[in-house]
Design a protein that fits this description.
The complex is a heterodimer. By secondary structure, chain A is mostly helical. Chain A has helices at residues 11-26, 31-56, 81-101, 112-128, 132-151, 156-187, 192-198, 207-224, 233-240, 243-267, 280-300, 304-323, 328-358, 375-390, 396-408, 414-441, 454-472, 474-488, 491-499, 501-506; strands at residues 62-65, 76-79. In chain A, helix 10 packs parallel to helix 12 (304-323). Chain B has 42 helices and four strands. The longest helix of chain B is centred in the first third of the chain and has 32 residues, at 154-185. In chain B, a hairpin with a 4-residue loop joins strand 1 and strand 2. In chain B, the strands form two sheets. In chain B, strands 1-2 form a two-stranded antiparallel ribbon. A two-stranded antiparallel ribbon of chain B has the order 3-4. By secondary structure, chain B is mainly alpha-helical. The chains are: A mainly alpha, B mainly alpha. The interface between A and B is large, with 138 and 127 residues.
Chain lengths: 509, 926
Amino acid sequence: MTAPLDHLLILPVILPAMAAAFLVLLLRHHLRRQRIVSIIVTVLLVGLAALLFAQASDGTVRAYRLGDWPAPFSIILVLDRLSATLLLLTSLLALCVVVYAAGGVDGRGRHFHPLFQFQLMGINGAFLTGDVFNLFVFFEVMLIASYGLMLHGGGAARLKAGFQYVAINLLASVVFLVGVGLIYAVTGTLNMADLAVKVPQVAAGDAALLKAGALLLFLVFATKAALVPLHWWLPATYAGTSAPAAALFMIMTKVGAYAIIRVYGLVFGAGAGPLELAAAPFVLPAALVTLAVGAIGLVGSRTLRDLSAFAVIASMGTLLVAIGLFDAAGFSAGLYYLVHSTFAGAALFLIAGLVQELRGAARDRLVPAPAMPGETLVGGLFFLAAIALVGLPPLSGFLGKVMILKAAQASVIWPWIWAVILAASLVMTFGFARAGSVLFWASGPASGTKPLPALPLVAVAALLALTLAWTLAAGPASDALGLTARQALDRSAYIGAVLGPDARLAAGD
Amino acid sequence: MTLLFVILIPLLGALIPPLVIRSGRNACAAATGSVTLLALALLMSHAPAVFSGEVPKAGVEWVPALGLSLSVFADGLGFFFAAMILAIGLLVIVYARFYLSREEPMGRFFAYLLLFQGAMVGVVLSDNIIALLVFWELTSLTSFLLIGFWTKRADARQGARMALVVTGGGGLALIAGLLLVAQAAGSYQLTEILVRGEMVRASPLYLPALLLVLVGAFTKSAQFPFHFWLPHAMAAPTPVSAYLHSATMVKAGVFLLARLWPVLAGTDPWFLIVAPVGLATMLLGAVIALFKDDLKAVLAYSTVSHLGLMTMLLGFGTPMAAVAAVFHIINHATFKAALFMVTGTLALLASASMAGVPLFNGFLSKEMMLEEAAHTAYLGLDFLFPVLASVAAVFSVAYSARFAIGTFLGPVRHDYPHHPHDPPLGLWLPVAVLVVPVIAIGLFPAAVAGPLVALTASAVIGGPLPDYHLALWHGLTPALFMSLLAFAGGAALILAFRRVDGVRARLPPLDAKAMFEAASGGLVVACRRIVAALHDGALSRYMGVTVATLVAVGGYGFWSATHAAGARPLLPVTAPALTAFLALVLASGAVLLFHGERLTALILTGVVGVVVALAFLQFSAPDLALTQISVDVVTTILMLLALNLLPKTTPREGSRAVRWRDGAIAGLAGLGAAGLAYAVMTRNGTSISDFYLAQSKPGGGGTNVVNVILVDFRGYDTFAEIIVLGIAALAIYALLDPALKGAAVRRIKAMLPRDEAKDAHPLILVVATRVLLPLSLVVGAYIFLRGHNAPGGGFIAGLVVAIALIMQYIASGYGWAAERMKLDAQSLIGAGVAIAGLTGLAAFAFGRPFLTSTFGYLHWPLVGEFELASAMAFDLGVFLTVVGVMVLSLAQLSRVAHRVDPSPESRAPMDVPLEGAASGAAGKED
């Protein structure tokens, strides 16, 4: 028997899925009612995620066996501090995004809200699953829903970027299957806990296939996380889509980062025998290059949306530097930064959307133009978001950066890491200062008045308030994330929760 | 705790001015002033304790894991600086009230000013070095806002950006530097670090830490070669220049050198770097200041020069020099802030102090500086410092004189936003307040400034004070002669100014702003080039790099680990297998050759699908074969409909070399995949599928393992996959929706050839599809029902039914079919997902996890033993979704096609002959 409260674990997947079905079935011609339902469901998701977060905060790993089949034969969902944190982050982000979209963007095409809810289902499912094939399935849900959201509203540039997005990601999906296939062929299992038991025991003659599979799978996650040189899809996609879609996509790159933590911290992490830390040699150097590419692209951008997209690449580089350390300090710092960059990046994209709407013919191009309505207010919001993203004090970006700098000292190349991170911050400061002064300072007399959209402003303010709260709560947050990181690296707790205490003994932990 | 509020009050108080400005400018300034006054009063409440030698402390934890706390301490140095910042701040607020014009947003101005003030007090009071870094960068940011306050002026924007990049960049170096210092000292608290100087200096991290800290300090305090930003920061409103860029922020670097003096000073690298940088800055600033005609620029370069002086003194590393530095900091703060807000005769007094005229405070500290310089030898050169310091003093006398003359006689800047005619009380009172200490200290140094200097200097030195006297007359010292020389030289320079200026005019001009703008423009262009080169928008390139990475990393993975060939024996090659294999190879090769012709490529791809289906059959997977075939049919139809709207051939892309390169990458990837597949298929192994085989009937209630896996063991995967399908259909629907509108339709029309087939709906096809429809529906129901135990199931059944329905659209046209299609495809998708989900949720009622299945056997009359499984309800959801998905996507595509070419929409050729026919099987349902 499963206690009623245990079913909470599956609801972050089922609730948005059922809501989306409901929207398609009954409300597809009523945009206003769709909005109301979609916002209510997202609020419920926030509450649900908060409950799950509270559950996970006791430090136990909870497993949910779908279909009541024993592990490792069933698909298992796993709730631990890491997945609970990301669920909560996703729901908070989603709430801000859906409020922004309800300001009018959702009416520019069909089915925004069903696609949005399906997208949430995909993201939540990916964070909860303890099964690599099921992870593939939810990557597909995410991919196809994001493709729909990405194209929402139409337009030639969007279509072109969308085609590249889906083409590259379908290639990644194929490689995902190849990688999982190789891993399954050698280990005979798909369950992550079971894999964590079996990977260290791999026969010598099978190690090459397993390692090839592991690294191919890593490249898939790296593609999702926009790690250079697999980042091609990101700039055009994020810059090409609508503001709320881009803001929601902030969490999608994080899914790639999460998968790297999960699979390469647990299954192929320390203690994985001949495959110990299989992905580690690649992550750190590539992350530094990613950061550099992001910073360079940011300075070279011609529109605010391009700039925001490259800021995302830079933030993913920073995040993956931390994750690439593959230790508790690195994960902990990385997770703090992950939450921060999600809020701040989403705020920036939404601000770019506002600028594009309000600035008339110049849209968000970085050229002087007549002053937009609400210049001071929007400029102030931009200033805050920019400070956060560059990692200047006093906002969370600075704290996250210092955490990463400190954690990086565990690496032998730490002077290089410091140099790249700090130099990139300088370059990004320059890029943001330039963009901001052109957009909000160098403007001519106002061309006309246009009312400021209320809901989008509320959404942006909420995201920045979350950033501020994350800054103020940095103490308890980093303590909790320290525990989260240690739990994510604790093979025996995870294996024990999923497969039972005997398996833990068999795994020799 | 009140000490912490000295920082927090201005920071939080920054919210007040924008709110109070509605009540008027006086109220706004009064509110702002009250905030500062409150903070100052709180600080002063600690004065007795500080002067009695105590060090008040306060603090709250912020991020313990990071070593970050908001902790403050007020020793002599911090206390002095905080008091100076708040006191001058108060005067600046009064001044700014009258300086700003009515049109300017005073609320915002004061908000920025208070933010800056709080940050600056934070810098000087912080005990925790990470908190210090936070406040440090915050001063750069607020300074950016204040310099750029006149946002519509290009020089203000450029100056602001330059200041932010230089000081912010220095701040980033400082982050690294202070973290290293903390690491070397083993603490993040300054109070700890300050007593661990030995430890830090002995650490291998000392030199990098020192260099990084110095970059931070030098950029902030405008030391050579980072001095260029400060003069351009003067584009700010005058109160800002007075406050930030002479009295407070630019002293932050000097403050930091003083703060860390007990830790970092006293070594060779410290002296060898800091002293000459200070000297160079002092000299350079003084020389440039002489030749500036703009009063504000003179003051800017003079500030640079004086900052250099302080840096040099701290760089000497001797306690005596440190005392001199402290004394000069005090003196400079008073006369320079006064000079910025200069009005009338008061300017004469302040500039006399700046020149170092006896009886003014500037004289005393400059004297001490010359005295120290006279005793300093650099790398064995004992004349270098005395001579150059004297030269700097000469220039400083000269520019001060020029400034004093210029105030009365010279041209005045006319580019202020407004020009005060009659200086009101508020404009000259702050200056007067500042000039009082200038004279008082000048006359009675020991009495007026003695305790403060002693307090501050002992905090800097961190040990016993040297034996020194603050006095007007020290006897006939070398410094006195150097001073006299400076006055003589200065006077000579002024007299010969025109000739000297002529020499300078012939030198090539060096404009820092133009150089900085050119450099940043160059950076932007370079970045644009890199981005354009990397992201050229060509998918083939992106794919090429991606696949090459896959090949390289995958190959590395394989060859960096041990591999043994599999033990599984190969199957014998049979004739049918060989045929299928050859068909596969030929079809793939042909696709490669004909991929430019889209229809041919599509047909050839179909061959691949058939061979795969045959392979499934060969290896006893009839379910998969059925699925493969139906999926193949549906995708082919979909592609045909889409191709109908596209050009017939693809454009040729890339040169021959590029194609060969891409071909090579793709070929390698293909070979790699084939090799891996071969390695996998030639080995044995156990897997979780054994469990599925064993449990299918007893646990899942079905003998068709594939179906039980789909709807039960891994039903959750299926649930998500049908949602993938559903989303895809909804996305196609949404994507093509705009294509139904005018512009897109016209574009497609223009692109397509006009020679369409004459008979769009051949009669035989119409009849056949209508006859087949009920048959297909029955087959679909049959396949659905038997799914759990025999090949079939909801997925395949859905595809079969969908194909039958789609055939109606193809054969009879969109209009005809849409009119008769009573079920809305989108509802089918929604209902399908909902039914599947609800089936899964039903398990909750029995206290089981999502998608737990149950099954039982019923005895139906006529039918016999009949199994009823909850999985069938789930499968029904699958079925409905699949039908909905296929019908929606294909119908939407045909709708577009119909819009593009609506001509064959005549009903006669389709329906009339059927009505006459005796069978009349399908057709007129409506």
